[in-house]
Write a structure and sequence with these properties.
Order of helices and strands: EHEHH
Low-confidence stretches: none
Strand order of the largest sheet: 1-2
Structural class: alpha+beta
Number of strands: 2
Mean pLDDT: 84
Number of domains: 1
Largest sheet: 2 strands, parallel
Number of helices: 3
Length: 76
Amino acid sequence: MLRVVGEFDGKMNYHRSSPFVDKLPEDVVYDEKLREDAIRVTGPHMVRWTWKDSTNPSGLHAKVLAALRIGGLIAV
């Protein structure tokens, strides 16, 4: 069983000109929320990060460590 699930949140999927998405931005966001809800009901803690987080390695590290602690994967 997964205890922690991480996901990078970029902006490209929400942009109408994205070559990767043939949906409206609001549909992409809605689908994302449904997917996350489906994951959450199985029990794991969700952690998300963005490009901004990636420019602060110590902050990103702290965010991931906190998720691992909440998920019971590392000692408190």
